[in-house]
Specification:
This protein has 172 residues and is mainly alpha-helical. The chain has two domains: 127 residues, Antithrombin, Chain I, domain 2 (2-Layer Sandwich), CATH 3.30.497.10; 43 residues, no CATH class. Helix content is 63%, strand content 7%. The chain is built from eight helices and two strands, in the order H-H-H-H-H-H-E-H-E-H. The chain has a two-stranded parallel sheet with strand order 1-2. Helix 4 runs antiparallel to helix 7. The chain is globular and about 35 Å long. InterPro entries: Serpin_dom (IPR023796), Serpin_fam (IPR000215), Serpin_sf (IPR036186), Serpin_sf_1 (IPR042178).
Length: 172
């Protein structure tokens, strides 16, 4: 959870000062509340972010790289909701979740809180994060998965015909 806050603060740092000046007590409380249930070790979060950056940079060495570790981490956490045992463990370990110290539920609650906080309207800027899952028409999703996606990540699911690539691209 602290990773997500750190990354968001880095991305939003020009506005952070104005937020603090206008509502110092409120902002301090919000940031403190978001630290509750921090579940990912700092070194693991850093490793995930920089390993991802290095992989992207090596694939396109002469290109500028812009990516959102928060969005990618959140997408992987959402994916873990529907993954089976060993795949789920690999995803959670990749995100740096230490299941000896924290639960998977804390990770998802942390993302839920972060999403709610980042989508709050501000005077100086507006940041909107959204999630969606496009699934193959033939895929039958479990109701508990769909419900968790909506509740925790504000994500809708959309059946998509991936055999019609032009139509799928348009839908997405």
């Amino acid at each position: 959870m602290q990773l997500f806050l750190l990354l968001c603060l880095v991305l939003l740092s020009p506005q952070a000062d104005s937020l603090h000046r206008h509502h110092p007590r409120e902002m301090k409380k919000r940031v403190k509340d978001l630290h509750v249930g921090a579940t990912v070790a700092p070194s693991s979060r850093r490793d995930f972010t920089f390993d991802l950056y290095r992989a992207l940079a090596s694939a396109a060495p002469s290109q500028n790289i812009f990516f959102s570790p928060v969005s990618i981490s959140m997408s992987l956490a959402m994916l873990s909701l529907g993954a089976g045992s060993s795949t789920k463990m690999q995803i959670l370990e990749g995100l740096g979740l230490n299941l000896q110290k924290s639960s998977e539920e804390e990770l998802h609650r942390g993302f839920q809180e972060l999403l709610q906080e980042l989508n709050q309207p501000r005077d100086s800027f507006q940041l909107s994060l959204g999630n969606a899952l496009f699934t193959d028409l033939m895929m039958d999703l479990q109701d508990t998965f769909v419900s968790a996606m909506k509740t925790l990540y504000l994500a809708d699911t959309f059946p998509t015909n991936f055999r019609d690539s032009a139509g799928a691209m348009k839908q997405i």
